[in-house]
Write a structure and sequence with these properties.
Blueprint (H helix, E strand, L loop, with lengths): L5 E4 L4 H10 L2 E4 L10 H6 L2 E4 L7 H5 L6 E4 L9 H7 L2 E3 L6 H16 L2 H9 L2 H5 L12 E5 L3 H12 L3 E5 L11 E3 L2 H6 L3 E4 L13 H6 L5 E4 L8 H10 L4 E4 L10 H4 L4 E3 L8 H19 L10
Parallel strand pairs: 1-2, 1-3, 3-4, 4-5, 6-7, 6-9, 7-8, 9-10, 10-11, 11-12
Helix pairs in contact: 1-13, 5-8
Length: 315
């Protein structure tokens, strides 16, 4: 067992919880706001935290744990953790990348297919008897041979691009620098330049202050008429107000959104639109991937406890 307690914050599956509780001396709370409910001795001596949450983990929370040395985050995104404050306090932060790439990419492409081929409307057409009453379902749009843009050619972006290449798409992308990609894939220096060149824009950049409203009103305006946007990064990356205006007007063809500005409280204007596919931030939401994320978080906690190199260090 670990000499100092490990605080578990958030939900863990029975398997994950058993793995953690068997290896470490653990204390569990549902969210960061309950830190003060833990015994003072636990807060004072805790050196590592297993964090599975979406509320801000900042200096105030870190100060409640004076011996803290590691925040092992459950998830690839760590924008809720104040990295500057962690560095200032000498706290290491890890995340769980790579293990969720396929599932997030699959959902991204699935949302595009659902939009282009009107899968949800087609399902209703059958269920509500419209096929028998009115006949052939209205024609929709092809999902193959499109000009596809990936904003953020990281691990997930690359998986999306590879999938869309199989759909005979012309792949365009933007990132901080050109990547090692097939020669036919076109690099763009700015999001604005990328948007102007594509029919579909996949947003896969990391969240945080540096990417806040990276997809601005200007970028949305640069997209061609009837273009589609798919966001599996963070709601803060897109100017949601500007996006809604373009969807309401019909200038944009649609949006597939797995993330939102104020989730889980989604803007009612989005709920009223029939040219959007809305998902409950479930890009990595398969049993297999969530267990793999838990395993990687556990591996980082174990490496820290055994004074070995951390596997996926962020800072």
């Amino acid at each position: 067992m670990s000499a100092s307690p490990v605080i578990l914050i958030g939900y863990y599956s029975p398997r994950q919880r058993q793995q953690l509780e068997t290896r470490f001396s653990t204390h569990s709370i549902d969210n960061l706001a309950l830190l003060h409910d833990l015994p003072e001795a636990v807060r004072r001596t805790c050196r590592s935290v297993a964090y599975h949450g979406h509320s801000p983990f900042g200096l105030a929370e870190m100060n409640q744990l004076p011996s803290l040395e590691l925040i092992a985050n459950f998830g690839v995104g760590y924008d809720d953790i104040d990295i500057n404050a962690a560095v200032e306090r000498g706290i290491k932060v890890t995340n769980t990348p790579n293990v969720l790439n396929d599932d997030v990419a699959d959902l991204s492409v699935g949302m595009l297919l659902a939009l282009k081929r009107q899968l949800l409307a087609g399902d209703r057409w059958v269920r509500e008897g419209e096929w028998a009453r009115r006949g052939t379902f209205p024609l929709n749009a092809s999902a193959s041979g499109l000009r596809v843009g990936v904003l953020g050619m990281g691990r997930i972006g690359r998986e999306i691009a590879d999938r869309m290449a199989a759909f005979k798409s012309k792949v365009h992308y933007q990132s901080r620098s050109p990547k090692d990609t097939p020669s036919s894939w076109q690099y763009h220096k700015t999001p604005l330049e990328l948007a102007a060149a594509v029919d579909v824009l996949f947003v896969t950049v990391v969240g945080g202050t540096k990417t806040h409203h990276l997809v601005s009103a200007d970028v949305l305006n640069a997209l061609p008429d009837n273009a589609v946007i798919i966001n599996v990064s963070r709601g803060s990356v897109i100017d949601e107000k500007a996006l809604i205006e373009q969807l309401e007007s019909g200038r944009l063809g649609g949006a597939g959104l797995d993330v939102f500005d104020n989730e889980p409280n989604v803007n009612p204007k989005l709920l009223a639109l029939n040219n959007v596919i809305l998902q409950p931030h479930q890009g990595s939401g398969t049993v297999q991937t969530r267990e793999a994320m838990g395993d990687l978080q556990f591996a980082n906690l174990e490496a820290f406890n055994e004074k070995r190199d951390l596997l996926t260090l962020v800072n």
